[in-house]
């Protein structure tokens, strides 16, 4: 979380207190590309399960079922994407 410090003021009429302001989310901040990829893949739930398990156990070896489920989901998604790209390539070739 980022906090913005206010600009120092030269006026003595401003009471001196804490200088922290509320957290400010920058409009230009973008979602992490990896999070975007996982969201688009349809595997966000299994990814969340891995994260939850890791937070609970702090040991990836205890989270192998969740890791395997996420891996399987991503592999299936990648295979579907490859098939779609191949289909589009074939359709483009047939039209020329």
TrEMBL record:
Residues 1-32, 76-96 are annotated as: Disordered. Residues 9-19 have a biased composition (Polar residues). Pfam families: CHCH. Residues 78-96 have a biased composition (Basic and acidic residues). Residues 43-75 form the CHCH domain. GO terms for biological process: mitochondrial respiratory chain complex IV assembly. One of its GO terms (cellular component) is mitochondrial intermembrane space. Keywords: Disulfide bond. InterPro entries: CHCH, Coa4-like. This is CHCH domain-containing protein. It comes from Callithrix jacchus (White-tufted-ear marmoset).
